[in-house]
Amino acid sequence: MKLQSDFPLKPYNTFGIDVKAKLFARFDSVQELQELLQMPELKQEQKLILGGGSNLLFTKDFDGVVLQNGIKGIEIIREDENYSYVKAGGGEVWHAFVLYTLEHNLGGVENLSLIPGTVGAAPLQNIGAYGVELKDVFHELEAAHIETGQTQVFTNQDCRFGYRESVFKNELKGKFIVTSVVFKLHRTHQLNTSYGAIKTTLEEMHITQPTIQDVSAAVCHIRQSKLPDPKQIGNAGSFFKNPEIPVVLFDVLKAQYPEMPAYPVSELTVKVPAGWLIEQCGWKGKVIGNYGVHKNQALVLVNYGGASGHDVQQLAFDIIQSVEEKFGIRLTPEVNIM
After folding, report:
1. What's the pTM?
2. Hey, what CATH topology would domain 234-337 get?
3. Which pLDDT belongs to residue 191?
4. Which residues does UniProt mark as catalytic (predicted)?
5. N or C end: fewer C-beta atoms under 10 angstroms in the chain?
6. How far is the CA of 253 from the CAs of 39, 90, 262, 285, in angstroms?
7. Ranges for all domains in the chain classified under CATH 3.30.465.10
C-alpha cells in the first residue's frame, strides 16, 4: 500500500489514453482501504476508484487520488437445494470469476462471459449481455463508505438496479467502494440462448444439447469476432446504451425505416440497438486520424494509438448529434467520461 504521485494511467485504462493521476495507491484488503481513507493527505482529495479501467474515458489528468481495487478471492459461502452463494472480491477480474463458476458448474453468468472489468465495478452499472443482467444473479454486496471507511451491506433491492444503472451511479455516486459481491447462482441450469446469435453459434458448433460451458464458449466466440481486444486496439467496449423509446415513436420510425430492429421492454416502450442507429448514420468503420468507429461493431469507439480523450469524446458527441438529427433519438454514453 504505497502512495505514488504523478502516476501514469495509460496502462490502467483500456482506451490507452495517456494521462496521469496526481496520486495513486492500490489496496488489497478492506483494512488497507480503510487505512488509505484515513490518511490526512487524502482526506480532501477527489477520489476515483479504479477496477479494470474498462468503462472510462479520460479527457485530462486526474487531479486527485486514484485508488485501485486489488481485493481478491472467490469462495462458495453457502448452498441450498437450488443455489450456491459465491462471494468474490471486488478486485477480481470479471471473466476470471465467470471461469470459476463454470469450473464449479454453477449457472447464471455464462452469458456475461468475456465482459471486461472487475467484479467490484460490475454492480455499479448492472452489466448485461445476451439477455442477462447482473441483477438476475446478484444477492448482496459489501461496500466501504469513502468518507468514514465503514462497511455497509447492500441487498439487490438496495442497489435499485436498472438498465446499466444502479443507486451507485445516481444518489450514491462516488460515495462507496465495493469490496466484495455475493452472487446467487443456479445449481440446476436455466439456459438463455434466445438472445443475439447464441443459438446460431451453437448450431454452427454442432451442439444440440448445450451446457453452461457451451453457452459461455459461444458468447466468447461472438464477442471475439465482433469486438476488438483492448490489448491490441484501445477501446471500452460498447460506448453507448441501447436507447429505450416509446412504442408510438417506434411505430412512426418503423414506417420510415421498415428494417429497424427493436426489442420489447414493456407495453409502452421498446429498446432499439444503438449500433444499428449509428451504422445507419454512416459511422461504422469510419477512421479519423488515429481514432474512429470499429469496422465490425458501430457501438465501439477505438483509439488506434495516440488519440486523446478529447478526440474520442468529440467523436461520441458527433455520433450523438447525427443519430438525433436522423431519428430523433438521443444516445447516452455507457462509458464514464472523466
Report:
1. 0.82
2. 3.90.78
3. 86
4. 164, 238, 334
5. N
6. 56, 42, 11, 25
7. 74-186
Q: With CA atoms as reference, report the closest residue to 286 among 143, 278, 68, 272.
A: 278
Q: Which residues are catalytic?
A: 164, 238, 334
Burial of 181 (0-12, 13-18, 19+ CB in 10 A): buried
Side chain identity at 178, as an amino acid letter? Answer: V
- Note the maximum CA span of the chain: 62
DSSP state letter for 217: H
Q: At what angle do helices 212-226 and 94-103 cross, to 10 degrees?
A: 150
Which amino acid, residue 263? Y
Distance CA(68)–CA(201), nearest Å, equals: 37
For residue 281, pLDDT over 90 is answered with yes
The CATH 3.30.43.10 domain(s) of the chain lie at 4-69
Residue 242 has pLDDT above 70, yes or no: yes
Q: Write out pLDDT tens, residues 58-99.
A: 999 999 999 999 999 999 999 998 999 999 999 999 999 999
- In the chain, the percentage of residues whose pLDDT exceeds 70 is 99
The confidence band for 155, taking pLDDT boundaries of 50, 70 and 90, is very high
The answer to whether residues 12 and 309 touch, using CB atoms and an 8 Å cutoff, is no
Looking at domain 4-69, its CATH architecture is 2-Layer Sandwich (3.30)
Task: Examine the pLDDT at 189 and tell me if it is beyond 90.
Answer: no
